Amino acid sequence: MANKIALIGYGAANMLFAAYLINKERVDPRRIIIIDPYHDGGALLRQWACVRSNTTYRQFADALRQLDLEAPSVEQPEEPTPLQQIAHALVTAVRPLVERTDKYFAKVTECRLADGQWRIRLSTGQTLQAAICSLAPGAEPRILQTGVPQIPLATALHLPSLQNYICPGSTKHVAVFGTAHSGTLIAENVVAAGATCSLVHLGPQPFLFASEGAYDGVKQDAERIARSILADGLGGKVTLVQYEQALDVHAALCRADYAVCACGFETAAPSIIVDDRPLETLKGLPYNPATAEIAPRLFGWGIAFPSKTTIDNRTYVDVSIPSFTAHILAQQERIHGIL
């Protein structure tokens, strides 16, 4: 049997990579090792199922077709889709391909390259060996030192769960940090739950809109909400606060019963060691988005290791099923050469 390929983390990005290996590179599934604590579809299903994607279902289905996968048809393909539906469609499409792969239910604590092979240490105490690794461990929401109790991001995005914090008829106030897709959706949820909101934004413009040419601007549901906030603060319930105005932020936090951080994610990757030298740096692993490489024959994908686009000296991360697919396909020649 040829050298093994290890997929560390089995959310959307590594499901797409598994499909690429099997459908495009004709890799025997028995060469593939998949390591994940749950094998349940990843964070899309586990944490963000209630959120509607900011891309349309047609864009999702088109991305799958690039990997010779089929998504079920829907009545409104031009509409954004709940991530639950996308996750189920992706799991269903990939499941037959990976039936003969080796699956381990565990976390990876260390990947060590020595003598041309990756030695992968699992939380169960086992050590596996592979020639190639694909690392897509996901990411956790960034946490700010707000000084007030924080509502987890996934909870704030799910209105019924958010209502556990905000009782009907209460006068709760929530400070939400971030005005991209998630923060904007949360502001609407806070108002729907019966509370008021301070929505904290970075820079002089509260919102950037994709419809006005902003590469990473809000769109779909988030654009509708953002324009309502600009018009009347969702009925006077939402106050915009610029992050750089320290006294205004302080006042918002003094008033707040809770805070929500919707301002990015942090990667939770295992230790990576090459020739007895740890690769971690103060800014994270030395990852090159252009090649998707972290170290020799160690590739990174997904929200933890996304592709990036630079426009006017500003760098944007690309996080979606279409961008994950494009990132994998862009490395086709490189991957083919080492299989």
How would you characterize this protein structure?
The protein is of the alpha/beta class. It folds into two domains: 5-140 and 265-338, 3-Layer(bba) Sandwich (FAD/NAD(P)-binding domain); 143-261, Rossmann fold (3-Layer(aba) Sandwich). Helix content is 29%, strand content 27%. The protein contains eleven helices and 21 strands. The chain has a six-stranded mixed β-sheet, covered by helices on one side. A five-stranded mixed β-sheet has the order 8-7-6-16-17, with no helix packed on it. Helix 1 crosses helix 10 (321-329), helix 3 runs parallel beside helix 10 and helix 7 (181-192) crosses helix 8 (221-236). The longest helix is centred in the last third of the chain and has 16 residues, at 221-236.
Structure summary:
This protein has 339 residues and is α/β, with parallel strands linked by helices. It contains eleven helices and 21 strands.
